[in-house]
Amino acid sequence: MIIVMERGATRADIDHVVQRLSDIGAEAHVSEGQLRTVIGAVGDRSAIQQLPWEAVPGVERAVPVLKPYKFVSRDHHATDTVIDVGGVPVGGEVVTVIAGPCAVESREQLFSAAAAIKEAGATILRGDAFKPRTSPYSFQGLGEKGLELLAEAREEFELPFIAEVVDPRHTELVASYADLIRIGTRNMANFPLLAEVGRQPKPVLLKRGFTATIEEWLNAAEYIYKEGNHAVILCERGIRTFETQTRNTLDISAVPVLKSLSHLPVIVDPSHSGGRRRLVTPLSLAGVAAGADGLMIDVHPAPETALVDGAQAILPDEFAALMEQVGRIATAIDRKI
Amino acid sequence: MIIVMERGATRADIDHVVQRLSDIGAEAHVSEGQLRTVIGAVGDRSAIQQLPWEAVPGVERAVPVLKPYKFVSRDHHATDTVIDVGGVPVGGEVVTVIAGPCAVESREQLFSAAAAIKEAGATILRGDAFKPRTSPYSFQGLGEKGLELLAEAREEFELPFIAEVVDPRHTELVASYADLIRIGTRNMANFPLLAEVGRQPKPVLLKRGFTATIEEWLNAAEYIYKEGNHAVILCERGIRTFETQTRNTLDISAVPVLKSLSHLPVIVDPSHSGGRRRLVTPLSLAGVAAGADGLMIDVHPAPETALVDGAQAILPDEFAALMEQVGRIATAIDRKI
Amino acid sequence: MIIVMERGATRADIDHVVQRLSDIGAEAHVSEGQLRTVIGAVGDRSAIQQLPWEAVPGVERAVPVLKPYKFVSRDHHATDTVIDVGGVPVGGEVVTVIAGPCAVESREQLFSAAAAIKEAGATILRGDAFKPRTSPYSFQGLGEKGLELLAEAREEFELPFIAEVVDPRHTELVASYADLIRIGTRNMANFPLLAEVGRQPKPVLLKRGFTATIEEWLNAAEYIYKEGNHAVILCERGIRTFETQTRNTLDISAVPVLKSLSHLPVIVDPSHSGGRRRLVTPLSLAGVAAGADGLMIDVHPAPETALVDGAQAILPDEFAALMEQVGRIATAIDRKI
Amino acid sequence: MIIVMERGATRADIDHVVQRLSDIGAEAHVSEGQLRTVIGAVGDRSAIQQLPWEAVPGVERAVPVLKPYKFVSRDHHATDTVIDVGGVPVGGEVVTVIAGPCAVESREQLFSAAAAIKEAGATILRGDAFKPRTSPYSFQGLGEKGLELLAEAREEFELPFIAEVVDPRHTELVASYADLIRIGTRNMANFPLLAEVGRQPKPVLLKRGFTATIEEWLNAAEYIYKEGNHAVILCERGIRTFETQTRNTLDISAVPVLKSLSHLPVIVDPSHSGGRRRLVTPLSLAGVAAGADGLMIDVHPAPETALVDGAQAILPDEFAALMEQVGRIATAIDRKI
Questions:
Q1: Which chain A positions have a beta carbon within 8 Å of C31's beta carbon?
Q2: Residue C73, domain member (yes or no)
Q3: Residues A24 and A112 occupy one common structural domain
Q4: Which H helix or E strand runs over B328?
Q5: Cβ D31–B29 below 8 Å, yes or no?
Q6: Is the pLDDT of residue C135 over 80?
Q7: Predicted TM-score of the model (pTM)
Q8: From residue A226, how far is each of A77, B55, C41, D31 by CA, in Å?
Q9: Closest C-alpha to D125, from D157, D94, D79
């Protein structure tokens, strides 16, 4: 931690900061410039970071040197983590494609989508049974019935599946069915829910909060990791900006930034970021080219009847064409699908 | 809903949209311009808004005319709502001031703050027992012990209190102690939690998500209202922007905007928006001048020892001076504290 | 400057940084922690800040301790600056109100507005002759003819006036007529234009870029100051955020933040920030309560015929009512209009 | 234009809107819903868009159906435009790579960079003689001397070059030397400058304002186009968001969005968006995969001595490796470099 003192800070103010560092067993390195005094604090990270430095008299601001997360950082684990999802690896050489409808609406809809994505080469099925919706008047999902249909589809098509959990009271239920538990963008900072999934024996896909910084996102991953669940996959899905031509702005830079800060696998969701069908293919190709370990794509047999997010779902034949192009990009960077 | 067709939309595309509107009992008003055809949809709001119009062939975009929320809007209820919090009114002529420590840390800390804010004229006590923290390594609150201390302070100082709930499994516990339940900024879109507090017999203070639009915020209030709890207070607490001199940017315009869109009372939190002690007074005065029905302010007897958010807590004597100034502004606009 | 080294930085990398500091006559204070080495650089601010530290091998990031601006900071000049605008003071005890139409459209429109704002107590007239417009198909102003009309109105109503300059080639022309030159939000980072107005003998009102940080804004003020023109007034006018209910989000916190960082006067434009007529009064009151030294308000005798920004212009009688309320708020904080 | 009336709008308010439309020769299509009346305006786009509808009594808001720009839209010109830059095409089958130092610092620095980028396969040289800098104390460029060096390098290496213009008074000077004139991000809304380059006989590369929406950007292109210069290239270079790990957030979605809205070529600047050397390659690959017609990349023989933006410049050998990878991605999508 670097503590920058105010211009008018007195000798007593400086001594007080040094004393408080000493009280917690940290060293203080004091540099006096002409206009400001700066104090470098060296010692136990947690102890130093938890004190409210900016409330201490004479302190202008405190700048952390170390990140608040530990286990999910490259500092802690230098090599890339590969996660097993019902037998399918995420991370490593392969670019893994997750696809399916945004929400499970019926057996027919789900099975039609599952057959199509299997045929085109996807290896994990998506489909939600519980949906967090902005308006209380929108469709909220089929609940456990949806999970049962997903489990049936898994048998039928030999595809592990991912499903979202939105309530800590449903965590065990979702974990008992799904191969991969999803934390959605609105729940990235739902700490009780993160703690619950951190205690489950299934891997977790953690979507970025659409207004979260990368550091907040890694802190959220740390919540899960700290509870004992080390199988965490990060999913970039677009952030809120002033631009209105797209639903959110895909932060493509997050892919290489995360690869540098963390050892966890990173995938890209081109469907929810753009919010438009015609953007799905270019954003998928960009994601893979930027180094993502996978994609998660909404595919629906009849988007204009979709109960959730139809505007961004692509048709099965569009998905097949996309997979062909993704394969070519993967090959160009020495990966494969 | 206004449906704008693409430039190349065919007669069949237009007829298909008209047919889909007809299927749900809505009327279509078709206007054909030189470059675009526009279709106005008139009929049942929910039925029209739930169809995925932007997934329908030939549709460029769909622009809602009506808001997705109903009960919390001025259209539904024209006069200002006044809410009773343990005998203290929020809304109406009085500017209500809520104050106290961010988190309950000890009996001594809480009682010292409570005595000071009572003395200075605040009428509701704040203090949290459960804290959602960005880092898993930060202090998470005293839990039920904190609620017990708050209940003791209520007796001692005759001040109703507000406390945050962060987990749907704790809703009844918090509601059994507190006079006013708070939904924090990170949980504004935690829909299961909103539904739970919507079923409690206590009023709810709903903080704005720091990245939520006003429309999303009113949708969240609607979730609570729809479950039967009509005692909802809105609290503006700053939004995330590119500016880094303040923790968040207080959206002062939200006060008059909400007064125009909704009948619910609106208060301002000048502590968490600015994140700096020296900003608390000017932002408080601005909030009251802009028409807010109250303020919620962090007061701590010793901010530099605070376990949560010390940088923004003001001292008891600073709070007393603030109350004096707030009283003068209130008088200037024909209100009182 | 604080230079944080990468985790893997070698002894040679550290020595290289120390050498480069030594080369420019600066001292290096090296603190070695367990995970990172931090180097504090003490010496000539400009020399240190201009080196591209983040391009030096082994450097993770460089954190400036001092601000890049000097003359406009409180460090340089501790007391509040008061600026004379054609005999009217801006800064100090008085809250100065600037009002008038967004653009000069005709003699009749301008004189009607000027008479009304004079009557209501405003002391500086606004009205533009050159308008920067987002679309090339919008009205661009009357040019020099507009300046002549403003000069006539000045005589008639004894009101100094402010006018915008948008092109460095027009700076002398505008300065020859106006009492106060305005740099609009789109030109805050137009450095050749800033340098030109920095050489004029008239005070300058510098609007915040609607996407500029406070630090960038003060850097822009420094450009003007550095050329020799020390009469700079800052005008907060709203920033771009994700919220769409208002045209921009008035950053009310900027008022106290600027008062702390700079000695220059600060005024608030409630018209362009909100973009809505009904927001003008509450935002004006909030601005004054937060400590602004003045307001700049669009007043138009017939907004629905306005050629520019009619949606936010208030009518003369609305302005008179606003002035009465502003006066009461000013009195409440021991100022006057 | 769609005009949505307020809930309480009277018959007279509606008739008044209809009358105003009639006055400008437009038709009004009135749809009366239960809660709101909506009026569709059909007629001359410019005439309708210029009236201040939101200032008209009883109007809640006005939603444009058509874009304010014309010539740069796909509606106006359906096929992709290819622009000739000193013999090098931009747009079409080839992915064009522009590279070189951010600023011209010396003959040696420029020629070293030019030799390297030529060798690696780039076809246009970049290097600036005039730099807009946030701080008045930073290096501002070599001026005309820099242009002379660029012209020499063009001869030596047979590479047309691009240079920025920041002042309308320098437009002819820059145009007399450069093959491609650049409008930088801070000048995207500098309308007098746009008008000047619109009258030059050289193509223009228009960078996106880092806080501009895509619609504002296309309006800026329209300013140039309307003056007679139809050779406009758009360059995405990152937008300002809340994320701080990168200097700006590359809006990769802008590439396919622009391809859909406009016929102009689109290139990506991976250097200024990320602001970090290690992000340049992944963002370049993502840009090409998303469909960009080219890249513009900062290359410097010794970044740690750069006078401008050294942190993001890559070394010549890094650039050569990047070109090899870009070539493979281009091939994968049936393009070439």
A1: 29, 40, 42
A2: no
A3: no
A4: helix B316-332
A5: yes
A6: no
A7: 0.94
A8: 14, 41, 37, 58
A9: D157
- DSSP β-bridge partners for residue A182: A164, A205
Please state, for a pLDDT cut of 90, what percent of chain D lies above it: 80
- For residue C272, is pLDDT > 80? yes
For the segment D300-306, the average pLDDT, to the nearest whole number, is: 87
C124-126 and C96-100: which strand pairing? parallel
Interface of A with D in 244-273 (CB under 8 A): 244-246, 249-257, 260-261, 273
- In-domain check, residue C326: yes
Average pLDDT over residues D146-171: 96
Cα–Cα distance measured from residue D48 to residue D66, given in angstroms and rounded to the nearest whole number:
11
Please judge whether C253 and B245 are an interchain contact, meaning their C-beta atoms are less than 8 angstroms apart. Answer: yes
pLDDT of C257 over the 90 cut: yes
The pLDDT of residue D275: 85
Q: Calculate how close chain C gets to A29, using CA atoms only, in Å.
A: 7
Q: Are residues D240 and D310 in the same domain?
A: yes
Residues of C in contact with D49 (CB under 8 A): 135, 137
pLDDT of residue B326: 98
| Interval B160-180 mean pLDDT | 96
Q: Are strands C96-100 and C2-5 parallel, antiparallel or unpaired?
A: unpaired
- Taking contacts as CB-CB distances below 8 angstroms, the residues of chain B near D32 are 42
C13 in A contact zone (CB under 8 Å): no
pLDDT for position B45: 83
Whether B140 and B244 share a structural domain:
yes
Q: Do A160 and A285 belong together in one domain?
A: yes
Co-location of A180 and A324 in the same domain:
yes
- DSSP annotation of C91 reads S
Give the number of domains in chain B: 2
Q: What is the mean pLDDT of residues D302-306?
A: 85
User: Can you give the residue range of the structural domain that contains A310?
Assistant: 83-332
| Distance between B97 CA and the closest CA of chain C, angstroms | 17
Residue B22 contacts C where some CB pair is shorter than 8 Å? no
- Give the three-class secondary structure for D205: strand
Q: Are D273 and D186 found together in one domain?
A: yes
pLDDT tens by residue, D106-115: 999 999 999 9
Q: Closest Cα of chain A to C140: distance in Å?
A: 26
- Per DSSP, D115 falls in state H
Residues of chain A with pLDDT under 50: none
In a domain, A73, yes or no: no
What is the rounded CA–CA span in Å between residue C49 and residue C24?
11
Query: CA–CA separation, C332 vs C336, rounded Å?
Result: 9
- Kindly give the residue spans of alpha helices, DSSP state H, lying in chain D: 11-23, 45-50, 107-120, 144-157, 171-177, 191-197, 214-226, 254-261, 270-274, 280-289, 316-332
Regarding an ipTM greater than 0.85, the answer is: yes
C109 versus C274: which is more confidently predicted? C109
Kindly state whether residue A337 falls inside one of the protein's structural domains. Answer: no
Q: Which residue has the tokens 């009506």?
A: B66
Residues A180 and A50 occupy one common structural domain: no
Q: Are residues C57 and C188 in the same domain?
A: no
D235-288: pLDDT as tens digits:
999 999 999 999 999 999 999 999 999 999 999 999 998 888 999 999 999 999
Q: What number of other Cβ atoms are within 10 A of residue B12's Cβ?
A: 9
> How many whole angstroms separate alpha carbon C26 and alpha carbon C19?
9
**pLDDT tens readout for residues D74-85:** 989 999 999 999
Retrieve residue C313's tokens. 């212009």
Quick one: CA dihedral B67, B72, B76, B79, positive or negative? negative
Asked whether the beta carbons of A171 and A196 are under 8 A apart, the reply is: yes
- Structural domain ending residue among the three candidates C63, C92, C109: C63
Cα torsion angle, B264, B266, B272, B275, sign: positive
CB distance A224 to A194 below 8 Å: yes
Tokens of D220: 């800026």
Output helix, strand, coil percentages for chain C, rounded to the nearest 5: 40, 20, 40
Around Cβ D175, how many Cβ atoms within 10 Å? 20
Nearest to A66 by CA among A234, A189, A263, A215: A215
Q: How many CA atoms lie within 13 A of A167 on its CB side?
A: 18
